Amino acid sequence: MAHSKIYIVERMVGHEDLDEMNHVNNLQYLRWTLKAASEHSRNVGWPSERYRELGASWIVRSHQITYKVPAILGDQIEIRTWIEDLEKVSSLRKYEIVRKSDGRTCALAETRWVFVDLATLKLTEIPEIVRSAFRESS
């Protein structure tokens, strides 16, 4: 599948986002990516409650983050995310975190998500109803 339409979350860097060097803490980038993924899913009709009703949902298999330039207090940030691929039981979601003032990329990230049965936590095939929601966001 060609990647889905880019979904964008905007935020301003606050004091709570900073580390002791006054840059955005590396764990905050991870939090931003997870929040963007959740918001994107909700936006295409799949909030967490709907996954619970289905009895299956996504869990993280792996994360990869490459830091490029630091974001600092007051920076306006865009967290851009999209589905790069949907396989039988997994999906690769990519992210680009951009500082709006100059368009520079602060970080690139990707998460490999797997679809699991919530009762057993075993991998399960991604249902067509879920696949189509993300395809239709293309």
Describe the protein.
By secondary structure, the chain is an alpha+beta fold. It has a single domain, classed as Hotdog Thioesterase (Thiol Ester Dehydrase, Chain A), CATH 3.10.129.10. The protein has helices spanning 26-43, 48-54, 128-135, and strands at residues 7-12, 56-67, 76-86, 90-99, 105-117. Strand 3 (76-86) and strand 4 (90-99) form a beta hairpin. The longest helix is centred in the first third of the chain and has 18 residues, at 26-43. The chain is elongated and about 45 Å long. The protein starts with 6 loop residues before the first strand and ends with a helix. The relative contact order is 0.24.
Secondary-structure map with pairings?
Layout lengths: L6 E6 L13 H18 L4 H7 L1 E12 L8 E11 L3 E10 L5 E13 L10 H8 L3
Antiparallel strand pairs: 1-3, 2-5, 3-4, 4-5
List keywords for this structure.
38% strand; alpha+beta; 138 residues; five-stranded antiparallel beta sheet; single chain; Thiol Ester Dehydrase, Chain A
